[in-house]
Amino acid sequence: MEFYHLNDPVYWLNRTEKKMQAVAQSKYYTPEEYLEREEKAEYKSEYRDGEIVLMTGGTTNHNKISLNFCREFPLTIDEQEYEVYIGDVRLWIPSYRQYTYPDIMVVKGKPVYEGKGTTTIVNPQLIVEVLSKSTQGYDKGVKFKYYRSIPEFQEYITVDQYGFYVEQFSRTSEGKWVLSEYAGEAAVLKLESVELEMSLQALYRRVEFEQEV
After folding, report:
1. Domain 60-211 CATH assignment equals 3.90.1570.10
2. Which of 6, 33, 89, 101 has CB 3.0 to 4.6 Å from 85, enough for a Cys bridge?
3. Which residues have CB under 8 Å from 147's CB, separation 6+?
4. What pLDDT, on a 0 to 100 scale, did the predictor assign at position 11?
5. 40-to-35, 44, 130, 201 alpha-carbon distances in Å
6. Helix, strand, coil content of the chain in percent (nearest 5)
7. CA-to-CA distance for 154 and 82, rounded, in angstroms?
8. What is the pLDDT along the chain (213 residues), one digit of tens a residue?
């Protein structure tokens, strides 16, 4: 712990810096200001109803799992075309004024874009999040609540990157959400919104759990 005398200019400099940081952290941003900042930013951030939150970096396991899912997902199933987006495509959730970057989004048919350009969509049918220790509470809690407000959204898959474990939340015709769990290398994930099965062995291909901290 550091101590300063009240006459020490360093003390007042530190107080000023902390006040400026607090003001910056509490600043309200409009969606337009966020998008303008995001265009110039070196790192991606989420927009949470006026607040801009810097996103954390992913692990190699996180990256491998995302790529494996996309590799296993065909773009045409039963003559129905799908689009699969990974990481860099943004999602706008108007009901809660949220801009976010899901790990994977699957769109049935063609994407519906928000605003100008092709960087932000609004109509994912399926979303996959690879969980990390720092974000899993948010991803399975409030963020899932936001996702459920999307009319086209039918299925949510969360993948543990530290072991063979997947949770699947699927929407029924009555609008209820049903949880299914898949554990162990021999388990097979059966998607509900799409006619597709995916083994956990394939989903976790080349993932090395022991190397993750």
Report:
1. yes
2. 89
3. 93, 127, 153, 156
4. 43
5. 9, 10, 27, 39
6. 30, 30, 40
7. 14
8. 334 444 555 444 455 444 444 444 568 999 999 999 999 998 999 999 999 999 987 899 999 999 999 999 998 888 899 999 998 999 999 999 999 999 999 999 999 999 888 999 999 999 999 999 888 999 999 999 999 999 999 999 999 999 999 999 999 999 999 999 999 999 999 999 999 999 999 999 999 987 544
Single-letter code of the amino acid located at 83: E
Q: What residue spans in the chain does CATH classification 3.90.1570.10 cover?
A: 60-211
**Dihedral sign, CA of 196, 199, 202, 207?**
positive
Residues paired with 88 in a beta bridge: none
Where do we find the tokens 């070196």? 42
Q: What is the pLDDT of residue 78?
A: 87
Distance of CA 40 to the CA centre of its chain: 21
Contact predicate 57/45, CB 8 Å: no
Contact 157, 126 (CB under 8 A): yes
**DSSP notation for 16-85:** HHHHHHHHHHH----HHHHHHHHHH-SS-EEEETTEEEEPPPPPHHHHHHHHHHHHHS-SEETTEEEEEE
Contacts of residue 94, Cβ cutoff 8 Å, sequence gap at least 6: 122
d(CA 170, CA 128): 12
